[in-house]
Amino acid sequence: MPVMPEPRTPMFGMYLPQVSMSFPTIVTRVLAAEEAGFDSVWFMDHMATPMAPQRDSLEGWTLVSALGSLTSTVRLGHLVLCDKFRHPALLAKMAATLDVLALLFTGEKVSYEGRYVSLNDAICLPLKGMSRNGPWLGGRVDGRPSEIFREHVYVAPYHEENIPALVDLIGADRVLLGSDFPHPEGLAHPRDFAAGLSDLPTEDVRRIMRDNGRELVGLGV
Prior knowledge:
Blueprint: E1 13-15, H1 23-36, E2 40-43, H2 60-68, E3 75-78, H3 88-98, E4 109-113, E5 118-123, H4 145-151, H5 163-170, H6 202-216
Parallel strand pairs: 1-2, 2-3
Antiparallel strand pairs: 4-5
């Protein structure tokens, strides 16, 4: 008989894209979410409002930095960060500064040689932060970073992507149903996502469409 995973407590977040909203309005809504018991509030990271560049919006990291000093328990983040906006070393420094009281860095120097980005004896300071987002540890790791990443990541791809190729890369147990609805490029009917899985075995389709999500939140299969 299969062993059921330990149940996990679901966490609830609110997506609040900062489009055509004043800072006081955003503060009011974030504090209301915190008071209501939300675990997190998420913002967008775009140079201009998608599909509506004429509508003003506040820059994501500057906004979160300001909100971090006004909130107490709610986690703040972005859906998602654009990797071309900030060098990874700068992004890490920004995160450490924002979360200056959490155990974010160990203080060790870090070197990394990647395909697109390399670091040589990068200094990982400040050391601690507010512990809303930690602990994250920097420094040496055992094993290949790509394998460590694979063991701790789930991917919810767009339906237009080559999902069988993604399954070959990371395994069917790491792929989740994704729709991105109600964005214009999203799927209004999640079942339509299965159309891109026709080349996969039935077991893989079931994992992607249902089982992986259930396991992720501790519901079992």
